[in-house]
């Protein structure tokens, strides 16, 4: 999967704790990550990664303070390649129940819900992803491959047609969302070994072709 550096990959920095591991994953694939909290640089970027750690409402607040909400909307509207990870996926929905009901970005209609009672929360560790739609993000990855999760809430899109992958953790949740050039995962590819690295590689291949 390694290749010589061709393009810069812009990673949005809003204080999320997994920036270094995300950057290292793209470096392994031969790309040059640019980590920035500057909305102008993200606006000018062609390929963007929105990482996620923490609570959705706090993440929305942090991104808004940086002026990133409009930028993220623009990226999606212009169908520029965007990969959102974990809470990065959740903030794309209409609202979150975490810490009370709070608005999110409303890019993908739906709600972020708490994992069902009676299950181990947070859902942390390895779990299978069932491929519900044929999508290039899954190239070279077998159905029901394991990925690493760490979350207590999950994205529940209103439109099931954007749900490319699901995972059973007391409920069948959306673990991969795909729409146009937007791909989002509830799991952390950067913590998911070879298959996680393959997710990044597949996304970046798609981005190069767009």
Describe the structure concisely for a colleague.
This protein has 210 residues and is α/β, with parallel strands linked by helices.
Question: How would you describe what is shown here?
Answer:
Mean pLDDT is 92; it is low at 1-5. 27% of the residues lie in helices and 33% in strands. It is globular. The chain has a single domain (8-209), classed as Rossmann fold, CATH 3.40.50. The protein is an alpha/beta fold and 210 residues long. The relative contact order is 0.17.
Question: How is the secondary structure organized here?
Answer:
Layout: E1 8-12, H1 19-28, E2 32-36, H2 39-44, E3 48-50, H3 56-65, H4 68-77, E4 82-85, H5 87-90, E5 93-96, E6 102-103, E7 108-114, E8 123-131, E9 145-151, E10 153-157, E11 163-168, E12 172-179, E13 182-185, H6 193-209
Q: Strand percentage, roughly?
A: 25-35%
Full CATH superfamily name: Class I glutamine amidotransferase (GATase) domain
As laid out across the biggest beta sheet, the strand order is: 2-1-3-4-13-12-11-8-9
Count of helical stretches: 6
Radius of gyration over C-alpha positions, nearest whole angstrom: 16 Å
**Which CATH architecture is right?**
3-Layer(aba) Sandwich
Mean pLDDT figure: 92
Described by its quaternary structure, the protein is: single chain
CATH class: Alpha Beta
Label the overall shape: globular
Largest sheet: 9 strands, mixed
The ordered string of helix (H) and strand (E) elements is EHEHEHHEHEEEEEEEEEH
Distance between the termini: 19 Å
- How many domains in all? 1
Counting helices, strands and paired strands, the structural category is alpha/beta
Helix percent reads 25-40%
Q: What are the segments in which pLDDT stays under 50 over at least 5 consecutive residues?
A: 1-5
Q: Write the CATH fold name.
A: Rossmann fold
User: How many strands appear in the DSSP assignment?
Assistant: 13
């Amino acid at each position: 999967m390694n290749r010589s550096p061709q393009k810069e990959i812009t990673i949005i920095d809003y204080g999320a704790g997994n920036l270094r591991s995300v950057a290292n994953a793209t470096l392994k694939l031969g790309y040059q990550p640019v980590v920035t909290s500057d909305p102008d640089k993200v606006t000018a970027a062609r390929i963007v990664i929105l990482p996620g750690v923490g609570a959705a409402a706090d993440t929305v607040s942090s991104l808004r303070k940086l002026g990133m909400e409009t930028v993220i909307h623009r990226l999606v509207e212009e169908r520029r390649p965007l990969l959102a990870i974990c809470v990065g996926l959740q903030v794309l929905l209409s609202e979150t129940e975490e810490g009370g009901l709070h608005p999110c970005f409303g890019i993908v209609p739906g709600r972020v819900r708490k994992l069902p009672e009676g299950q181990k929360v947070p859902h942390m560790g390895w779990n299978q992803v069932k491929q519900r739609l044929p999508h290039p993000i899954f190239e070279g990855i077998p159905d029901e491959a394991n990925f690493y999760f760490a979350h207590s809430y999950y994205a529940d899109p209103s439109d099931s047609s954007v749900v490319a992958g699901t995972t059973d953790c007391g409920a069948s949740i959306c673990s991969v969302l795909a729409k146009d050039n937007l791909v989002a995962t509830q799991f952390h590819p950067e913590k998911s070994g070879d298959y996680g690295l393959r997710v990044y590689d597949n996304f970046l291949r798609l981005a190069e072709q767009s």
